[in-house]
Amino acid sequence: MKIAIITDQHFGARKGSKLFHAYFQQFYDEVFFPTLENEGITTVVDMGDTFDNRRGIDFWALDWAKENYYNRLQEMGVTVHTIIGNHTAYYKNTNDINAIGLLLKEYKNVICYNKVTEVTLGNLKTLFIPWINQENEKETYETIEKTVCPCAMGHLELRGFNANRYVVMDHGAESDAYSKFTNVFSGHYHTRSQKENIRYLGNPYELYWSDVDDPRGFHIFDTETLEVTPVNNPFKMFYTIYYEDTPFQLLNASEYHNRIVKVIVRKKSDPVAFEKFIDKLYKANVHELKVVENFDFGGVYDTEEFEGQESEDTISILNRYIDSAEVSLDKSLIKELLRTVYVEACEVD
Fold it and tell me: What distance in Å separates the CA atoms of residue 64 and residue 244, rounded to the nearest whole number?
């Protein structure tokens, strides 16, 4: 039996941005749903963070999610097993009140898991592990210890895995408890990574600059052979263009329509030619354009360090600053505190 695994869809992201949801819809209409139909898939496992804001919902985004995602799955006869993640649980110490249970009651094909549960997918016994918190931690680890399920799927925060291409999480739970499973699949971190039997599958699409050029999409899992096949999302939201006296005539700007573009100037000998290059991007109706120049070096960037840092998100920049600071405090605790404050700030309207 083949099933689809998707995670961290974050409906309502970027404060319910219509730009981003149009970008999401391109993925669903042209990649996700056609793949389900072509493969005859009737079971989807959603490993958490289906909605973006744990404290509220943008009504437009909720209507969009129902119209463009849940209604279509219902019409196709697809069963959706949804595991609660930290963004879909209202409280931090319990999963009982969650977005899935409250917002999607009319969908009989959507099953919500707010506590650790053994589920059979095809002939494969699988342990679903929602977000682990103060209330369910003891029960969760006791169940993990005694289960005979060879496979686990959840929304886990484990130490030593990449949160994005630039940051490796130095806090979170140890992965030792999961060594008994043949396969462990998890959401939560948005970039793909794997260590031994544990695989973070990553989210379906780019949400921030730190996601640029990082593979996104979903996965097909064969419950008989245990084969995992990534299905990549070919569509991008963020583009980096390196300008090195590039003739504007060679620029195909059509792909940047309604996209977010950053032009990094490595060499600019002719300001007029450069303006024509930039004007061509504006005529393509880019949604947002940022030009980065370094006049101290004559407009030339010759270090990889700059390029990497320029693509970092806020959390990455904060973590790098803390790592370089000479303080006697536990840096991992400072990082976690700043990350929590940042997330809370993003959730404030």
Answer: 41
Give CA–CA dist 104/110, Å, rounded: 7
Exposure string (b/e) for 128-156, b if CB count within 10 Å is 16 or more? bbbbbbeebeeebeebbeebebebbbbbb
Cα–Cα dist 200/216, whole Å: 12
What is the per-residue pLDDT across 263-305, written as a single tens digit (0 to 9) for each? 999 999 999 999 999 999 999 999 999 999 865 544 444 434 4
CATH fold of 2-232:
Purple Acid Phosphatase; chain A, domain 2 (3.60.21)
Distance between start and end Cα atoms, the chain = 43
Helix, strand, or coil (residue 173): strand
Q: Which of 109, 111, 84, 110 is nearest to 98 (CA)?
A: 84
Rg of the chain over all Cα atoms, to the nearest angstrom: 22
- 68 alpha carbon, distance to own chain's centre: 19
Asked if 131 and 92 count as a contact pair (C-beta separation under 8 A), the reply is no
pTM for the predicted model, two decimal places = 0.85
Nearest C-alpha neighbor of 313 from the set 165, 155, 172, 159: 165
| Spatial contact of 151 and 178, defined as CB atoms under 8 Å apart | no
Q: DSSP E strands: which ranges in the chain?
A: 2-6, 43-46, 79-83, 110-113, 117-121, 124-129, 151-155, 183-187, 193-195, 198-200, 217-222, 228-232, 238-244, 260-267, 288-292
Residue reference for tokens 């990094």: 264
**Pairwise CA distance, residues 300 & 294, whole Å:** 7
How far is it, in rounded angstroms, from Cα 178 to Cα 195? 11
Name the residue type at position 13: A
- In eight-state DSSP terms, residue 248 is G
Summarised one tens digit per residue, pLDDT across range 304-340 is: 444 444 445 566 677 777 877 777 777 777 877 887 7
- Phi and psi for 4 in degrees, rounded to 5? -105, 140
Residue-range domain boundaries for the chain: 2-232, 238-310, 314-346
